[in-house]
Amino acid sequence: MNFNSDNVHGVDDAILDALREANTGTARAYGHDDWTVAAEQRLRDVFECDLAAYLVVTGTGANSLALAATCPPYGAVVCHREAHINVDECGAPELYTGGAKLMGVGGAGAKVTPDAVTTLLGRMGRGEHEQRPSVLSISQATELGTCYSLDDIATLAALTRERDLRLHMDGARFANALVRLGASPAAMTWQAGVDVLSFGATKNGALGVEAVVFFDRALARDFLYLRKRTGQLVSKSRFLAAQMLAYLDQDRWLANARHANAMADRLAAAWRTLPGVRLPLPLEANAVFAIVPRALHAHLQAHGVRYLVWPGEGPGTDTVGEGEVFMRLLTSFRTTTAEVDALVALARQTPAE
Questions:
Q1: Which of 32, 171, 271, 283 sits in a 20 to 30 Å window from 57, CA-based?
Q2: For the chain, what is the radius of gyration of the CA atoms?
Q3: CATH 3.40.640.10 placement within the chain
Q4: Which residues, 6 or more positions from 3, have their beta carbon under 8 angstroms from its beta carbon?
């Protein structure tokens, strides 16, 4: 049983079929093929606006390139201190931007708050002696599985406009957040004030494709050069676009996310009934965070169950005791009810201390 990440699962069969279908004949390279043109148009249809979209291979590449397009080397990117760009991307945002500084702030549930941003910006005002705040980056869903409401996003967007910053959204699990909120892609992005989105697909069934989506097309003026220079321009680009087209076709991306979220709901409902188990965070995507007795943790580990012992600061809403472990279990489009139920049954067999 592997609940370590949604990255551990394979590829949606429909996406594999699309790759096989694309693997015939010849096509123009470097993004000039018919698949790429169609994928870009499909993204415009999904988001209901005349956006500029560019396909890349990885989420780190998408985030770093989006920030490079919106933040100068002497700028600063404000984000949550537990954000993926700050703790899990090996300095790639700093590298791609040419040296911009990431400045982390706090906030419950790994969500940036307007007060935290305002406080940070209020301490910065020494002109050329420090970085110029240029971008606010938020994650939807966050590293702790929480989501920004549409009002949350709009409030932060208004703050960025007041301070002449851009708003970036890391949407590695965008679909999971979207279906949980019951919102439209447009409402959760450009209509709320987002300037650029890293639109994730890999965690939700793709082999390896993400899109950098600019709702302000002016920001994408030099993006083709940035993508090439950073090695994210794929020569056989039709195979990226074929994945994206299949991902979006018949709303497969939304169905996959709904299934992953439903499996998380099933797991969380059962987890709450286990002795000594607490769920300190709201379940708003496909991540179940739990504080569990160390005996339960040891029992699951002894039986080969895989999950993440969370390395961050903790839930912020509860205290992890000396005899407890804070864990994250992630479900995916491939998680089955049988796997969830087997995990719960195993947990119930934890020997008494």
A1: 283
A2: 21
A3: 12-251
A4: 267, 305, 306, 307, 329, 330, 331, 335, 343
What length is written for the chain?
Answer: 353
pLDDT in tens, 94-125: 999 999 999 999 999 999 999 999 999 999 87
Q: 12-251 has which fold?
A: Aspartate Aminotransferase; domain 2 (3.40.640)
| Residue 315 pLDDT | 81
Strand partners, 52: 214
Interior/surface letters 236-256, b for 16+ CB within 10 angstroms, e for the rest: ebbbbbbbbbbbbeeebbbbb
Which residues on neighbouring strands pair with residue 137, listed in sequence order? Answer: 168
For residue 59, the 8-state DSSP code is: H
Instruction: Kindly state the average pLDDT of the residues 66-78.
Output: 97
Helices marked H in the chain: 13-22, 34-47, 59-70, 84-87, 92-97, 114-122, 150-162, 174-181, 223-229, 238-248, 252-271, 294-302, 337-348
Buried b (16+ CB within 10 A) or exposed e, 16-38: eebbeebeeeebeeebebebbee
Residue-wise pLDDT tens digits, 214-253: 999 999 999 999 999 999 999 999 999 999 999 999 999 9
Amino acid (1-letter code) at residue 64: S
Torsion of CA 189, 194, 197, 199, to 10 degrees: -10
Residue 60, Cα to own-chain centre: how many angstroms? 10
With residues binned 3-state (H G I as helix, E B as strand, rest as coil), the percentages for the chain, rounded to 5, are 45, 15, 40
Mean pLDDT, residues 135-139: 98
* Delimiting residues of CATH 3.90.1150.10 domain(s) in the chain: 253-348
CA gap 152, 295 in Å, rounded: 39
Q: What is the DSSP string of 239-290?
A: HHHHHHHHHHGGGHHHHHHHHHHHHHHHHHHHHTTSTT-B--S---SSEEEE
Q: Which fold has domain 253-348?
A: Aspartate Aminotransferase, domain 1 (3.90.1150)
* Predicted pLDDT of residue 311: 84
| 2, β-bridge pairs | 306
Contacts of 200 (CB under 8 A, 6+ apart): 59, 62, 171, 172, 173, 174, 175, 210
